Sequence to fold (317 residues):
Amino acid sequence: MALIKIPLSVPSAKQSEYRRNYNLLTNHSGRLLLLAGDQKIEHLNDDFYGPKINSADNSPEHLFKIAQGVKGAVLATHLGLIARYGANYRSLPYVVKMNGKTNLGPNEEKDSSKAWWKVEDIIKFKKQSGLKIVGIGYTLYLGGQYEAKMLARVAKLINEAHQSGLTAILWVYPRGKNIKEEDIHTIAGGAGVAACLNADFVKVKYPYGAKNKKLTAEKFQEVTLAAGQTKVICVGGSKRPVKEMLEQLTNQIKLGNTNGLAIGRNLHQRSLDEAIRLGQALGAIIWQGKSPKEANQIYNRETVNSSKSTNRFLGIF
Fold:
C-alpha cells in the first residue's frame, strides 16, 4: 500500500475519508489508471461513432462496462452519466468531471471556467446514491482569455473538495496562439500550475510523436519535477498499436517518473473484450510494475465472450 501524504487543506475530521478515497482512486498503489469519459461532451460523437470505431462505443454504457472489467481503474465522467448508469455499476470508483465544452465553434469564444455543480452538490449526490465518488476533475486551459476565471474557480473547487475529503484532478492544457501544446517545457509549466493549485493529480499532454522514445521520456522528468507532490499522468492520445502503447507507458513511468495514465478513445473505441484486456494490461504496468512483454501477454490472452468469463478476470490485480 502506498504512503499517502495528506495535504493540509484536508481537515483532521476528513483525513480518514480522504485516505479512503485516495486508495480507491489509485487502487491502493499511489498510481492512477483513469478512464476518461468526459469526451462525450468534449468531442461530441466524433470519438464514439465511425468506420474505425467499434459499434458498441456509440452507447454511453460501453464506458461503464469497460471500467467494470478493469478492476482498480477509475471512471471520470460528468454527473449525468453517473446518475443514469451508476445503479448498475456500484463497484466502480468515480471522478466527477465538473466542467466542459463541446467542439462546436471557435474555442477562443468559449468560457468553460464555471463548474456545472458545486462540491456540496457532489457530496449530496454521493450520500443519496451510495456510489463511490472519490474525487472531482476540472479542465484548465492556460493562455486563453478566460485563464484568470478558471484559475480562481478551480482553486476554490480544489479547496472545497479537500475540505470534504475528496481528491482533485486537473486536466491542464496550455492552449492558444503560438503555444506549442506538446513542448515539454510548456507542459512542465502547466504541471507547476497544478501544484500551486494543490491538485492531487494532473493530467497533461505527452509528445507521442517524438522519434527518440526513451530520450523523450527522460526529458519528461522536467514535468514531473515541476509538479512536485502533485502526481503526473499522461493523456493516452489517439489510437495506437498496443505494443507501442505498453512500451511508452513503461518509459513514462520508469524514465519520466509519471504515476499512471489517463486513457479515453484509445481504449473505448475498441470492442468490450479487447478494451478490457488492454485496460488490464495497462493496469499490470501501472500497479504491478510488469514489463511490456508481460503486459502484452495479458492483452493477448484467449478472447472472453461471456460476462461470467469476464468477471473471472476481475481479481487479477
